[in-house]
Fold this sequence. Notes:
Distance between the termini: 76 Å
CATH architecture of the largest domain: Alpha-Beta Complex
Shape: globular
Number of helices: 14
Strand content: 15-25%
Amino acid sequence: MVRSGMNMGNECMSEKMENPLISVIIPVYKVEKWLEQCVESVQNQTYQNLEIILVDDGSPDRCGEICDRFARKDPRIRVIHKENGGLSDARNCGLDLAGGEYICFVDSDDYIEPAMLEVLYQEIKKTSASIAVCDYEYACDELEDCLENPMSKKRDLEEEIILTGREFIRLKQSKHSICVVAWNKLYQKEVWKNVRFPKGKIHEDEFVFHKIVYPCHRIVCVPYIGYHYRLRKNSIMSYCVQKNGIISTGGNEIHVCEAFRNQCEYFAQQNDAEMVRSCENDWSAYMRQRWIYGDQKNRKEIRKEYISIEQGLLEKNYISIMTYIRRRILFYAEASLEVLYGSLLRKCRKNFPTVYLTLKHIKHSVKSIIK
């Protein structure tokens, strides 16, 4: 059978319409141990019409060399070598160069299931959603990394759900990690048109999550584990459990406060008082925990920033005077309760398990009464 040039051109156009280009952005920095697994998991996708952008963020190890080797063998791969500017800067660089109709982010020490992009694309196509979200599970190099890490429990989406951007933000309160991270999602490129990650910030996803999601009319979440997030002690967002059992976030609580303020101001600009109050309630509980468990050196700054945000919301009538007073009482009461029981609980846990369980029950009962 002989095909004319016009027919072949029409077939190519049809194929592009059916399988539009997806740009996969992978920031690369000091991950030579895991980089090959990450890139190969993207190369081996069942959805093949990809642009794979490797952004070598001035990595001092062999990552740049590994990236170049991949690019020589696969024409879909583009490599950008740049001075170190951090994760946000690397992602922004990839966004600026992306030519696909859809965008996906993959961290360079993680890996994805072979059908992840196809599953998410088909969901977007089926539901006309702006963003498709899949579930994920943790990958550990050593068993103890998962056993010791308080975040190592796999999170599940029980069923497919379709939400507005506003509803998706509310879902964040119960399924925080599934919602707020940049990875485990496929985006229509249009949602990133006027949004970029803030440079030099930890918790960078928290600064842009609401700006991306809130305007969306439809977001589809599928109960498919497509992403594997690696737990390792030296990663940017690793949580380490200290010997005394207290969780540390590496002194990044001030960035969390800043992200919270950013979110409240955004919803205020949208004249959405309900979302401001929802955001305030969510982050108020989170910041009380950060004040208790976070870096002790930052306590004064955390308290000062927290009170400043609450006062601003009170002045603009987003929260009532009673809510403000209640938040202040909770902030100190919960901390005092933790100081009172914390040390005793840790000592009893191994030696007196029955006493430990009794004290833990009393602690939760007292916290419920306070709230």
